[in-house]
Amino acid sequence: MSKGIVYLVGAGPGDPGLVTLRARELIESADVLVHDCLAHPGLLKWRRADCEVHCVGEKPGPRALPQDRIEALLVGKAGEGKRVVRLNGGDPFVFDRGGEEARALAEHGIPFEVVPGVTAALAAGACAGIPLTHRDTGPAVVFLNGREDPRGKNSVDWRACAKLKNTTLAIYMGTARLAEILRELIAGGLAPGTPAAAVQWASLGRQRSVAGAAADLAERVARAGLSSPAIVFVGESVARRAAIDWFERLPLFGRRVAITRDRDRNSELRGRLEALGAEVVELPLITVTKDVDRLALVEILAGLGSYDWIVFTSANGARFFFEEFFKGFDDVRSLGLLRFACVGRATAREVERHHLKVECMPSAATGESLAGALIATGSLDNAKIIVATGSLNRDALVKKLEGARAIVDLLPLYKTEKTDLAGDPAADDFRRNGADAILFASSSAAQSFAGQAGALRTAPGARRPLAGSIGGRTSATMREAGIPVDFEAGTATLDALVEALIERLNGRGGV
């Protein structure tokens, strides 16, 4: 078999939104994905279902797999003719092993490509309000490795670095030796009052930062409990942090929020929360899988031209419908004059991605509201309607449509099942650390949580979460299951749920 290729890809500083388009493209097409612990778990969701995954680092610091074995893994998988993506936190050529891995690949004649990433210092500076360069106070920046070289060959001469004028020092992997490094800088002539700061987990909701002066930063960092992965900055530009620290002022910064949608649908809500500064814990309490009624599908597709409307009550239903439709038809015009109705914005996007117009969408994302919006069109008398359903769909929508003299055919496309989170790392994190809030966007998630309440009980000392509901029906289910409703969205949409969360955590909201 011909040799494959290896892509040495920068996974960025943490936030998945800060990886390159090229990185995402390669992850989506990879046969093999090799990643370290600093690559955000969300990046792995972009891989194909049949992609082979290898985690080669369990936690910051010592690698789970020795470097020579990582290189052998890359060479071996590429030698099998596979497309291999090696994800390195930050940039593969900045204080990482990308150079060593590239050399090993070259020695074995394996083709490779290097895809740069946003290195930690850039993200830490940007997210902590520390400009690495500034025309007035710091026209230069130097990246330094704070980890002592055990061979003694490449250790940094800190006293020499102290003599660099108008320069911001960005020190990687230096928290363990921070007191020693700062003493050496001061001994080399750095003014003890020089502004300094440390930033941990830059760009993520769990980011923490401590600022001070070169003389006392180590003590402040130790008192705050900051550790790796962290970047330390020393220089006059750090003083500007107080005025332009934007990230840590976001409305959900420092808050831990647990979300309970299925894994495929969690990403939208997660993205909204992380953009507001939250640290998100995913508890996928339900699983949605395709489960098509083949007889109903064949009959409906054969008579598509006779239908007036197709109604989607979830993005899953819309996605699965088009997957099945395009198995039998290669032209979207085969849908004829079919009109589309969707329960909400996320569902509508699944239709619109096929360049089709959604003609009916209610302001509140509920089945009853969708039925009301359809009835308001005045087009239902003797209209033939397809309703794409799942295993837990309620019949209220269908009854209202039939009450308006519509002829309704059901098309079952998926099933929703409770997920057993026993042994799930995220569930373990939730038990140990808790959260500020847990969000329920469906009755099925609330029922699943209640069924696993014992296994998800938070440990003593963990944060006890407030429980938020997307709407009245979910709230009723929560109360029936013994889950207190601490806040509820004004309308049944994700935007409204997030707004209610912000108001409640800031002490302004309620049920």
Identify the notable features of this structure and list them briefly.
alpha/beta, six-stranded mixed beta sheet, Cobalt-precorrin-4 Transmethylase, domain 1, 33% helix, five-stranded parallel beta sheet, 511 residues, Methyltransferase, Cobalt-precorrin-4 Transmethylase, Domain 2, Rossmann fold, 21% strand, 4 domains
What does this structure look like?
The protein is α/β, with parallel strands linked by helices. It contains 18 helices and 21 strands. The protein folds into 4 domains: 5-117, Cobalt-precorrin-4 Transmethylase, domain 1, CATH 3.40.1010; 121-247, Tetrapyrrole methylase, C-terminal domain (Methyltransferase, Cobalt-precorrin-4 Transmethylase, Domain 2, 2-Layer Sandwich), CATH 3.30.950; 256-285 and 420-505, Rossmann fold; 289-418, Rossmann fold (3-Layer(aba) Sandwich). It has helices at 21-29, 67-79, 98-107, 120-128, 158-161, 178-187, 217-224, 241-244, 263-275, 294-302, 315-328, 345-352, 367-376, 396-403, 425-433, 443-451, 472-480, 494-505, and strands at residues 5-10, 32-35, 52-55, 83-88, 112-115, 140-145, 167-172, 195-200, 208-213, 230-234, 256-259, 279-282, 286-290, 309-312, 339-342, 358-360, 384-390, 407-418, 437-440, 466-469, 487-488. The chain has a 6-stranded mixed β-sheet with strand order 13-18-17-14-15-16. It has a 5-stranded parallel β-sheet with strand order 3-2-4-1-5, sandwiched between helices. A 5-stranded mixed β-sheet has the order 6-7-10-8-9, with helices on both faces. Helix 13 (367-376) packs parallel to helix 14. The N and C termini lie far apart (63 Å).
